[in-house]
Amino acid sequence: MTDLSLPPLLGGLPDKRQVAASFSRAAASYDSVADLQRAVGHELLRRLPPERSFACWLDIGCGTGYFTRALAEHFPGAQGLALDIAEGMLDHARPLGGAQYFIAGDAERLPLRSDSCDLLFSSLAVQWCADFASVLREAHRVLRPGGVLAFASLCVGTLQELRDSWRQVDGMVHVNRFRELGTYQQLCAASGLRILNLQSRPHVLHYPDVRSLTHELKALGAHNLNPGRPGGLTGRARIMGLIDAYEGFRQPQGLPATYQAVYAVLEKPQ
After folding, report:
1. Rounded to two decimals, what is the model's pTM?
2. Nearest to 205 by CA among 196, 221, 193, 217
3. Which CATH number fits the domain 9-159+176-205+257-267, given the four candidates 3.40.50.150, 3.40.190.150, 3.30.2040.10, 3.40.50.10190?
4. For residue 90, which of 32, 5, 23 has the smallest C-alpha distance?
5. Do 79 and 55 form a contact (C-beta atoms < 8 A)?
6. Contact (CB, 8 A) for 58 and 112
7. Tens digit of pLDDT for each residue in 220-258?
8. Number of other CB atoms surrounding residue 249 within 10 Å
């Protein structure tokens, strides 16, 4: 396992050791509540350059291996590698197959040789990386000329309804922070990789009540991991305040939760 002691970006992103531990604990429950994750990952697959073959691919942040197995189906005969920072996720994914190797590692310090992969695929993982410029540098190093980095991430605007509702209750950090879309655009433009596609798209899910949303976030391992989050149990009065505030967003379909997804496909110049 690589060194996880890097400081959080802007004092706002969580310690990756906590991220790894949280997702390891969620390995068994993750797939049961991962509708958004599957929708985003399949959208990213559709954005890959058509009629391109990849002799070697790497699934970065493979989680339970759902898209590791999808990549194996899309590119039969290719060498497949899967990497995750959470040992618990790898333990879950490894018996299900899809890749020749499952690797414990960090997207900011890929344990691969330079010029060794044709495709780096990462769906809803790099938002947890404190130094996204390092992710891009590593992608540039590991990709062969003409290789592709395809990633989906989350940006500011994600879970805005939950954030705004908590803001009416107290001043604590209750919702994970994410980068601005403009930050992704700037860093990708400066990466040395050619941008084939980079855009954001909202995905809105609906829930019958607040508890259903917060239960899903916990089952995903994606509940509040930020510095400044409140310690201990949240009191009943604050929970009731959250519920009352969130009800102001209710739509006929239920309580909305918006996820602002960033989709990017980049190519290493020949």
Report:
1. 0.85
2. 217
3. 3.40.50.150
4. 23
5. yes
6. yes
7. 665 444 444 444 445 788 889 999 999 999 999 999 999
8. 16
